[in-house]
Design brief:
Number of strands: 4
Largest sheet: 2 strands, antiparallel
Strand order of the largest sheet: 1-2
Radius of gyration: 27 Å
Strand content: 5-15%
Helix content: 55-70%
Shape: rod-shaped
């Protein structure tokens, strides 16, 4: 087996054991117990070193963190697309409450709800208690 394949195979096994909650020392023991070992320069079988497993764990955790960022970003993009469609449908029906609710959710998703503008800090709007006239004024940018 090529060195690159050996490393990838070991890291897959380490990732699986790490995901099951094993410590690095427990991973070393479990790999040896399952006869997944390496060889020394003389060709003798020996367990993987704690240092090797530690390096694998560091790399795996970085990969997991990157994967989470990508997945979260993709999920947020999908939600934004759905909110865009909700707003479009709301505007087509002249349903200002739906539009404003979608805008509010979009602002929260993008973490824009606490932005301070020239007039002062953003305030929380309770759209359920607002009249249609107030909602229309907001939608027209009059407020």
């Amino acid at each position: 087996m090529a060195k690159k394949d050996e490393v990838a195979n070991r890291q897959l096994r380490v990732a699986s054991l790490l995901a099951r909650g094993l410590t690095q020392r427990e991973i070393v023991v479990m790999l040896e117990k399952n006869n997944y070992v390496t060889t020394d320069k003389a060709g003798n079988l020996k367990p993987w070193s704690l240092g090797t497993i530690n390096a694998d764990v560091k790399k795996i955790r970085l990969l997991w963190a990157d994967d989470l960022k990508v997945r979260a970003s993709a999920h947020a993009a999908r939600i934004l697309a759905e909110l865009k469609e909700v707003k479009r449908a709301g505007w087509m029906k002249n349903d200002q409450k739906t539009v404003l609710s979608a805008l509010d959710q979009e602002m929260k998703l993008l973490q824009l709800h606490n932005i301070t503008v020239l007039t002062g800090p953003a305030r929380e709007l309770d759209m359920e208690e607002m009249s249609d006239e107030e909602l229309a004024a907001i939608a027209k940018g009059e407020v």
